[in-house]
Amino acid sequence: MIDVQRKPAxxxxxxxxxxxxxxxxxxxxxxVCDYVDGQWGDVRIMPYEDVKFPLxxxxxxxxxxxxxxxxxxxxxxxxxxxxxxxxNFQRLNKSARRLCMPEVPExxxxxxxxxxxxxxxxxxxxxxxxxxxIRPFLFSSSSFIAARPSEKYTFAIITSPVGPYYSxxxxxxxxxxxxxxxxxxxxxxxAAGNYGGAFFPTREAQNAGYTQILWTDHRDHRFIEESGTMxxxxxxxxxxxxxxxxxxxxxxxxxxxxxxxxxxxxxxVEERPITVDELRYSAEHGYxxxxxxxxxxxxxSPITTIGFKDKEYDLAYDEAGYGQRIKKALxxxxxxxxxxxxxxxxxLEGLD
Length: 352
Ligand code: COI
Hints:
The chain is an alpha+beta fold. The chain is built from seven helices and 19 strands. It has two domains: 161 residues, D-amino Acid Aminotransferase, Chain A, domain 1 (2-Layer Sandwich); 166 residues, D-amino Acid Aminotransferase, subunit A, domain 2 (D-amino Acid Aminotransferase, Chain A, domain 2). Helix 4 links the parallel strand 10 and strand 11. It is globular and about 60 Å long.
């Protein structure tokens, strides 16, 4: 059962949809569901507003928290579609298991999500390159500071109309000191701490003139892993190369969709380890044609400079390159301009 309490008056008229800063404007409603005494309670949809919490809130101390990032798109016929939402549902529960949190029931996630987006469907923007970013998250909400798993948990969803995540192209530095994740760790989850832990190394890279980090493995920084908050793809010669999934790498839904798309175009795609030396050699000898990050927020983020320890290599940005072709192909599936041959879109029927 979903308990809906509607906001008396919408805030949508105060929003400039032509100028949307990423993740700073929130739609009228939010969803909350608590887990208490070993059971999930009712799903509540209520006006988006501040909540009160004690400073002993467990998640603040031990970071038992994970999130998802997903989007709803405005389609050409005026409808609204969610992109592969069941993948986010499954991945949140994968994170939950590893972080010792209870799994969110499918009914709570999927029905709750659909109802929330339905209620705020007017917030799904129409402008080119925009969407409604959806942030489901799960956190420990007991009020105690003993270092053991929480007893209470809260699952919530907030939504935010967004424009493009990065403006322009990306300059990355191959990381030689810090690591995002280690074998046996939580790199494959969307744990809040994976992101918090990346802020300091990222700021250092930014202070050195880069946009993001090209993460390398925890052992000796020999293998490429991810780029910033995204998976990474290289086109070396005519082969698309991305590192294979492991317990250190997030199983990106955009990554999976792009691999499917490229294979359907009969491109050669390889999920296998890429060493820093190989990447450098490819860049130095002109084999590296293209590089891009793949993620929900940015979709495809073209990398135009790769900085190694002592040398930088520039890659020409090609408007007609694969990055842009992929972005357009995904955009066309999401808008309904192309057939949804893999059944990725969950279209919300009967919106007013
Ligand atoms: C993504 O694009 O996949 C993200 O997780 C970005 C988010 C951290 C803003």
